[in-house]
Design goal:
heterodimer; A: about 180 residues; mainly alpha; 2 domains; globular; B: about 190 residues; alpha/beta; Oxidized Rhodanese, domain 1; two-stranded parallel sheet; 6 strands; elongated; disordered C terminus
């Protein structure tokens, strides 16, 4: 029960953050794909950076056990295809699953339409699952992390991702200031 | 803008400091807790029978994760439904969430028992193994041998479980018929224990 309460609290905070960033607005999200508005990239990069540094240093300082984190398994081909379908849906509707909830909560009809499509898609995949199960489980790589893929130590990987993310964010800020 | 710059600089400092922070995982250097292992073996909380596992799968027990530690070729050939294949050499690279119930099995149980000790040494305490492995799955769940004098209620229960997984119980009275019916169902009779 406690876990559910915590999850609820985190969900409310996440929804508020998305709405404050303006991510409930489909045209704004779609503009990211035309490289005219970098809000999505900025929100994603800063969220990843905060979560990664928090998870690393929290684990290092003994606040929690990082080894207990669940890392989802990688199935390369099915996830590549899934990513393409996801990207297509994202640019067509201007919303991703999380932001469609936010859009619906703030009263946008686009959010309702996207969520309806989302559930219909999930249902379809569920019904077709026996037919696609072999593909669903193909090319398994276990819980593949950047650390395992490159063979670099965890800390070095964190530093590398930080430098890349901060550089991109600084570049975006410079571009926006120049406009 | 100044605040944003400060945030960026803090992120850089934290990120660039990460390579010098040492190992991330507290659990890595954890050794074997021999007392708790001995206690688990003594109390029998280290293992679960094939039939119990079948009931867990059927009842969709929350957080259940069935892991086949055999090779991918053996896994493709025959496996317990809902199981995922994590060969024993890949086991230490896998992540196990605290809320999950991990059930390990192998062909006849020895490797699963060893995998259980490996997971224990990694600090994974919520794992159990199937002592008779896939062979027990065949003998206790798919094609269980029912004694002639079994009660109708018990028989219905075993029947239902076996049929749920696509098997069928065998009826037998004597030791000899065990071997005969095992041969009929396409399995080799095997020696018990490992």
């Amino acid at each position: 029960m406690n876990n559910l309460l915590i999850a609820g609290g985190i969900g409310v905070a996440f929804g508020c953050a998305l709405e404050c960033a303006g991510l409930g607005d489909p045209p704004k999200l779609a503009r990211q794909f035309y490289l005219r508005d970098f809000t999505v990239l900025k929100v994603m990069l800063s969220a990843m950076l905060t979560a990664m540094l928090g998870a690393f240093w929290g684990g290092r300082l003994g606040m929690f056990d990082s080894a207990a984190f669940y890392v989802p398994d990688t199935y390369l081909l099915p996830q590549l295809l899934g990513g393409m379908v996801f990207g297509l849906g994202f640019v067509l509707s201007g919303l991703c699953p999380g932001t469609s909830c936010v859009a619906l909560a703030s009263g946008r009809i686009e959010g309702a339409a996207t969520m309806l499509g989302l559930f219909a898609g999930v249902l379809l995949v569920g019904l077709a699952f026996p037919a696609i199960e072999a593909f669903y489980r193909s090319t398994p790589y276990g819980s593949l992390t950047l650390e395992r893929l490159t063979g670099l130590p965890y800390g070095a990987m964190v530093a590398l991702v930080t430098v890349v993310a901060v550089s991109v964010l600084a570049w975006i800020a410079k571009c926006e200031a120049g406009r | 803008m100044k605040f944003v710059r400060q945030l960026g600089i803090s992120a850089l400092v934290l990120g660039l400091g990460a390579p010098f922070a040492g190992s991330l995982f507290r659990t890595q250097p954890r050794g074997l807790d021999l007392d708790s292992i001995a206690r688990a073996i003594d109390e029998g909380t280290d293992h679960v029978s094939a039939r119990q596992l079948a009931e867990w799968i059927r009842d969709r027990r929350p957080g259940l994760r069935v892991i086949d530690v055999r090779s991918p070729a053996e896994f493709r050939d025959d496996a317990i439904p809902t199981a995922e294949n994590v060969p024993i050499d890949q086991l230490t690279k896998s992540h196990f969430a605290p809320g999950q119930t991990i059930v390990l099995y192998s062909q006849e149980g020895a490797h699963a028992g060893q995998a259980w000790v490996m997971l224990r040494s990694l600090g994974v305490t919520q794992a159990v193994f199937v002592p008779g492995g896939l062979a027990d799955w065949h003998e206790e769940v798919l094609y269980p041998l029912l004694p002639a004098n079994v009660s109708p209620a018990e028989r219905a229960q075993i029947d239902a479980l076996s049929h749920y997984f696509g098997g069928a119980p065998r009826i037998g009275a004597e030791q000899g018929s065990d071997v005969a019916s095992a041969a009929m169902s396409g399995q080799r009779p095997r020696r018990r224990g490992c």
